[in-house]
Amino acid sequence: MSDTPTADPESLAERMGDFSPRLSPMLVKELRQGMRTNMFAIAFILLHTFMMLCLLTAMIDPGSSDSEVFFWFVIIVVLLFVQPLRGFSALSSEYQLNTMDLIHMTKLNGWRITLGKWAALNAQGLLFLTGVLPYLVIRYFLGNVNFIVDLIALLMIGIGSALATAITIGCSGFPNILLRGVACIALAILLSALGSYVSSELLSSSAPRAFKWQFLGLMALIGVFGCYYFLAFAASRISPLSENHATRKRLSALLAVALCFALSALQYDSEIILVVITTILCIATVDALTEPLPVFTRVVQPFSKTVITRWLGLFLIPGWISGLFFFLLSTGILATIFFFNEKARGNPHELKNLLFVLSTCNTVVFPLLIISLFFPSHTGSRFTFALYMLIQAIIGGITIMVSFIAAAIGRWEELTFSLAPLPSVLIVAYQRSELHNIQFLLIVPATTLVCVVVPLVRGRKSFGKFIKHMIRSK
Amino acid sequence: MSDPDNNTAYASKEEHTEAISPPLQPPAIEVTNLARWFNGIHAVNNISFVIPRGQVVGFVGANGAGKTTTMRILATLDYPNSGEAKVCGINVVEYPAEVRGKIGWMPDHYGTYRNMTVIEYLDFFARALGYKGQERIDRIVEVMEFTDLTPLSDRLIDKLSKGMGQRLCLGRALLHDPEVLILDEPAAGLDPKARVELKHLIRILAEDGKTVFISSHILSELGEMCDSLLFINQGKIIHHGDADSLTKSNSSSCLVEVLLSDPPEKLREWAMLAPGVTFVDSTKTGGRIEIEPAEDEDIAKILRRMITDGLNITDFHQEERKLEDAFIEILGEIEESGTPAAK
Questions:
Q1: Across the interface, do B77 and A5 touch by the CB < 8 Å criterion?
Q2: In this predicted complex, what is the ipTM?
Q3: Which of A118, A139, A174 is the last residue of a domain?
Q4: A–B interface: beta-carbon pairs under 8 A
Q5: Which residues, including other chains, have CB under 8 Å from residue B263's CB and lie 6 or more apart?
Q6: Number of domains in chain A
Q7: Which end of chain B is more exposed for a tag (fewer CB within 10 A), N or C?
């Protein structure tokens, strides 16, 4: 700190020239603040201390696997847990400090805010990564280390860290800490499960070598889509309603689906592709169904130009109403891909499997039906997402209870049939090979119809406005 | 429920627009039938008013009256359920980005960052407002000099006093040289010295031609600063006019404070016998009396009589009606008749 600060332009320019003016303002701010935090300093010092310990252990006992395990454990903890956790309150802290409104008054929109925060955390993560590199090289000279494999592993951890940070920042837009925590954990579990499923299928010892490149390709796709989507999700939740983030989010999900579909043409395992597509569409649909209203004329205007744009607007305009149509589109896409996939395989259980896919889609939309029936004032409010998560958790709890009871009393068929309108019960039934009753063919589409029609009828005022917006000429 | 306030608001709208605004320039702020409700409760209930360019307008009301909600809508941070709000002729809902370029917003709780110095704070907002290179430096230098923050440039923000913090917040709001300033309770929690400084800065900004829309609980301060005042109660505008008209009483009597070197009881005894004089209350060294009629001649006559009757008067002055009294009087009128008196 200088003793007598002056405000002459030269001394100011000198003091503010630590970062290039081309860098995002949010990135500069976060780096200035972030690198002064105790957490960054402690994590950095601890990482190097443990790395040196690992090296010492490896020098004393070169053949020991303990130092290898410890080495990777420390890197994983720092890059996949500590670093992403710093993003957990990235946006909510702006609300707590009453600074979010001030940032909104500038030229930074929601996307630039979240991207800047994510980039700053990843830049600090990159510092950690580059800090680890010398130790990696020294380990190589000590022997028993495949440098290229380690480098690829480090790269994968880096991508994982970027995705995990995007998830925590994506959820940090919610001021409620419990909701943030639940959403983060749910997404982390979902994506970890997806990652391990894809890895186990593609990297199994019996898998051909080409699959390893397919694995990398698919993981890169999931990583890029995940990072973009969760940041856009946060941006949409913190932005004024007059900003349209929904269209890009939904289009990005559809693009990711199209890329997955293209990958399936490169002899990928179609089941893996279907699982990835389902996950992508589920995340995008949950987001679309919980988007707040109202929709402003400015947002709708670009969609009211031609007949084609109006049709596109039906699925892409922000808000839960178009979210319902997006849900129908997603269901249609999934059902079509699934149907043709099964046909190509000549699977005799195709109908049963199709019912499973539709039940999965119904599980996603079902909480909206409950919200519109019992909490109509919260349909399309800022709290819809929290309510949705709560209802989904309750339904999940009920489903687990039912499956336990059914397993205990051995009356699966009756229980499943009586609870068939609860779509998640049908998913469990499918996994227990109980989804063979022909009446489900009626129940599943009927549930879909009810889940779509009832919220539209209950929210007819908003739906009417939406239609009016769409019909209104440019 | 009918809204009796609209007539008042519309009347003032035409009057102000014709008197001050150039014919083609839209007013600084124009609010028409604005309403905002939360869970069925009207925070802002169908209000309309116009603020011409270059004026300092005070926004007065109790806690929860709807001041902050109205200001947040004008600052594009909230949206109305019905009605329209425009800043410099631009709709705040439809074109928020354009409106943000025209306004400087200062909330009631100024935001501070940990681990950040004053200069870094201003630099962040200057970058975020799109300033680059030398222009960014110049803007920061200008606002630091204006708000007298230069000696504090390297101090961490969380080590600043409330007054310094408010100056920093004002500096941030001025970075892009906005045409309209919306200040929500800027003087809340400030010590007297910081208040005087802030008042001084606002006066300079007004002289510079900026429109200032400012809310406060301290009516006397607003009276000194503002060209006109907007009173809001339970989400409705109950008065829009200049401070002078409010401080001038409409009644035929006037209030006079008399200080004596005698005991205060002597004034009470005298007032009870004097025609046209009513004793109001006593103070440590005298009391207040009401004189009717309130013509200058009558007041002079009363003073002469007091002296001849042997009262040792040390001070005798007519009291102006306080803005607080005017505000309470308007509220009382509304409670009685359901409509505010025309001012």
A1: no
A2: 0.79
A3: A174
A4: 123
A5: none
A6: 2
A7: N
Contact B228, B28 (CB under 8 A): no
Residue listed under structure tokens 């920061």 = B140
- Residue A225 resides in a domain: no
Contact B143/A at CB under 8 A: no
A241/B79 Cβ within 8 A: yes
Within 8 A by CB and 6+ apart from B190, the residues are B162, B163, B166, B198
Q: Which of A150, A174, A198 is the last residue of a domain?
A: A174
Closest Cα in chain A, distance from residue B238 (Å): 29
Domain span at residue A136 reads 22-174
Q: Give me the torsion for CA of B209, B214, B219, B220, rounded to 10°.
A: -30
Judge if A170 and A246 occupy the same domain.
Answer: no
Chain A residues within 8 A of B100 when measuring between CB atoms = 104-107
d(CA A265, CA B22): 67
A258 and A169 within one domain? no
Chain A CB within 8 Å of residue B137 CB: yes
Distance from C-alpha of A121 to C-alpha of A34, rounded to nearest angstrom:
8
According to CATH, the topology of domain B5-112+160-247 is Rossmann fold (3.40.50)
Q: Considering the domain boundaries, does residue A103 fall inside one? A: yes
Per-residue pLDDT of chain A (474 residues; tens, 9 = 90+): 444 455 566 777 777 777 888 889 999 999 988 888 888 888 888 888 988 888 888 888 776 777 778 888 888 888 888 888 888 888 998 888 888 889 989 999 889 999 999 999 999 888 888 888 888 888 778 776 777 888 888 888 888 899 999 999 999 988 888 888 888 888 888 888 887 877 777 666 565 555 667 777 788 888 899 999 999 999 998 887 778 889 999 999 999 999 988 877 766 667 788 888 988 999 999 999 998 877 677 788 888 888 888 888 889 988 899 999 999 999 999 888 887 777 777 766 667 777 888 888 999 999 999 998 988 877 777 788 888 988 988 988 888 888 888 778 777 777 777 777 778 877 777 766 655 666 677 788 888 899 999 999 988 888 888 887 777 644
Amino acid letter for position A24 = S
Cβ of A101 within 8 Å of Cβ of B75? The answer is yes
Domain over B254-318 is classified CATH 3.30.70? yes
Note whether B82 contacts A: Cβ–Cβ < 8 A.
Answer: no
Q: Domain ranges in chain B?
A: 5-112+160-247, 254-318
Among all residues of chain A, which has the CA nearest to that of B121? A29
Q: Is A203 a domain residue?
A: no
